[in-house]
């Protein structure tokens, strides 16, 4: 089924996107378009969707906000004029020791979102920031720069999260994340979900504004959907406390899509272009990720935490081929040319792996790398939306890691609403083949709510997969990781319920990977 967006609407959308790219470039050079104005004065709070930072570097980071005093109207309550937003960065939370300031243009073409790229700061430091528009000031946010590339930091602390279906429950895990001392949060996808939301917000049983209820198909509807999610105070608190590094999975567009197609939907180009633009508008991403006139968005990127860890943030949706097998469960099919990442991203990743000198090499990944045999030795049924649907691409990735002699490769993965701790073998058809990497698959923040779904479904399969060292199918939460020169420590932070926003979150299990010894051990 094709998107209801017409060809004419698509041409207008792409033309606007191209204009946005040019506008952003001009803004970065300090050139203010003639459309910039002071706009109409408002008593409303323009920062209803919060603030965020992301994509940290040794000398800076991205600061984000979106002006939206009325986020569930077509223009967010901002009208059609471009406006100037002031920002400040200070060394103290009281915002007295200022180290950087400036003004950024917020344009209607990008829903009056702001993406400030701050440079010239000191490495490995805590900073605080704030926005101002007219008489309104945002809350004060906290963020951090990365250590210098040559530094040998003794420790890194980060969390990774995924799958936060608003209608499935509240976000107590984000409240816990906001209270943690972390260097960065990695979001591995399913930031929003694309289905209808009922008037009472599903499991939350709280009213949802009418514009945000319909399954998004247009750019305006995707903006409403992000506004609904950003209205959650616990998500806003986590963003205001830590820098986020984000990538997507499927529900930011449609379930289990590949490239520009999904089951029964051979051309998602229009829907995807609108979804990608809304994604950029609501995330702390750099200008290099501004959607292109063709509707694409560069998301794969890397960063280094001194010499302790290198992070490779992957995009496993935009460039993948349609699976050679079925769209869901079915017998394994090997297509030698099929790709999960796209051949250009594969080459980019190979170059990063070959040049890495980091002790830990992290691959931020949207779907499970390790094999999940569904029917045991008598069959070959797998789930084709995961790397199991692209076995030749997985073999290329394995070979790239082995040929580069990558030190301590660790996959962090989202998507499954379940927790897996996996030994990654060079050949999953041979259980005695060497283990060369470790994979931690984190459960969902809220998706599936408090229901028992995947425990009964995946549980009987675990015995067919001896490389799976640990599995839990039905707890909600996130994963906290602490890295040192000697070990990687993973703590599964779980909450007993997402039916209330103030549920406690506690460490349920802990696993350790020793330097130079692939595979995790429970401690």
From TrEMBL:
EC numbers, comma separated: 3.1.3.1
InterPro entries in alphabetical order: Metallo-depent_PP-like (IPR029052), PhoD-like_MPP (IPR018946), PhoD-like_sf (IPR038607), PhoD_N (IPR032093), Phospholipid_Metab_Enz (IPR052900), TAT_signal (IPR006311), TAT_signal_bac_arc (IPR019546)
Lineage top rank: taxon: Bacteria
Cleavable signal peptide: 1-36
A GO MF term: alkaline phosphatase activity
Residue ranges of domain PhoD-like phosphatase metallophosphatase in the record: 158-492
Keywords: Hydrolase, Signal
One Pfam match: PhoD
Domain Phospholipase D N-terminal stretches: 49-145
CDD domains, per database record: MPP_PhoD (cd07389)
Cited NCBIfam families: TAT_signal_seq (TIGR01409)
Protein name: Alkaline phosphatase D
Organism the protein comes from: Kineococcus radiotolerans
């Amino acid at each position: 089924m094709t998107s209801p967006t017409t060809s004419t609407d698509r041409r207008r959308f792409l033309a606007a996107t191209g204009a946005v790219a040019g506008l952003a470039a001009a803004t970065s050079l300090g050139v203010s378009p003639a459309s910039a104005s002071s706009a109409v004065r408002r008593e409303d709070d323009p920062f209803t969707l919060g603030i965020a930072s992301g994509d940290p570097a040794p000398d800076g980071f991205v600061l984000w906000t979106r002006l939206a005093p009325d986020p569930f109207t077509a223009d967010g309550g901002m009208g059609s004029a471009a406006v100037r937003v002031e920002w400040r960065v200070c060394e103290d939370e009281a915002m007295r020791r200022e180290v950087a300031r400036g003004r950024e243009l917020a344009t209607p073409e990008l829903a009056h979102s702001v993406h400030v790229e701050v440079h010239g700061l000191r490495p490995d430091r805590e900073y605080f920031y704030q926005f101002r528009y007219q008489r309104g000031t945002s809350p004060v946010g906290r963020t951090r720069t990365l250590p210098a590339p040559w530094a040998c930091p003794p420790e890194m602390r980060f969390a990774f999260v995924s799958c936060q279906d608003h209608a499935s429950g509240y976000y107590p895990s984000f409240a816990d994340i906001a209270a943690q001392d972390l260097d960065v949060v990695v979001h591995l996808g399913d930031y929003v979900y694309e289905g209808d939301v009922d008037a009472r917000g599903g499991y939350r049983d709280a009213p949802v504004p009418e514009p945000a209820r319909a399954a998004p198909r247009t750019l305006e509807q995707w903006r409403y959907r992000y506004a609904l999610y950003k209205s959650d105070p616990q998500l806003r608190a986590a963003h205001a406390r830590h820098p986020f590094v984000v990538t997507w999975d499927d529900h930011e567009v449609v379930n289990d899509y590949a490239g520009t197609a999904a089951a029964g939907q051979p051309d998602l180009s229009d829907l995807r272009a609108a979804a990608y633009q809304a994604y950029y508008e609501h995330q702390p991403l750099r200008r290099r990720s501004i959607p292109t006139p063709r509707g694409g968005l560069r998301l794969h990127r890397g960063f280094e935490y001194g010499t302790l860890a290198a992070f490779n943030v992957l995009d496993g949706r935009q460039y993948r081929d349609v699976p050679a097998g079925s769209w869901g469960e079915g017998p394994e099919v090997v297509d030698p040319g099929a790709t999960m990442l796209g051949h250009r991203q594969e080459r980019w990743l190979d170059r990063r792996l070959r040049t890495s000198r980091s002790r830990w090499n992290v691959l931020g990944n949207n779907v499970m790398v390790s094999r999940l045999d569904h029917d045991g030795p008598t069959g070959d049924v797998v789930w084709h939306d995961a790397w199991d649907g692209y076995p030749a691409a997985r073999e290329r990735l394995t070979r790239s890691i082995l040929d580069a002699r990558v030190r301590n490769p660790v996959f962090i993965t989202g998507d499954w609403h379940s927790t897996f701790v996996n030994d990654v073998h060079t050949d999953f058809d041979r259980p005695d083949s060497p283990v060369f990497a470790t994979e931690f698959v984190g459960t969902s923040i809220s998706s599936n709510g408090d229901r028992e779904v995947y425990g009964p479904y995946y549980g009987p399969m675990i015995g067919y997969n001896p490389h799976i060292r640990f599995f839990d199918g039905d707890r909600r939460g996130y994963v906290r990781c602490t890295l040192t020169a000697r070990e990687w420590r993973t703590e599964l932070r779980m909450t007993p319920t997402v039916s209330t926003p103030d549920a406690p979150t506690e460490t349920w299990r802990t696993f350790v990977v020793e330097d130079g010894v692939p595979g995790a051990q429970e401690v």
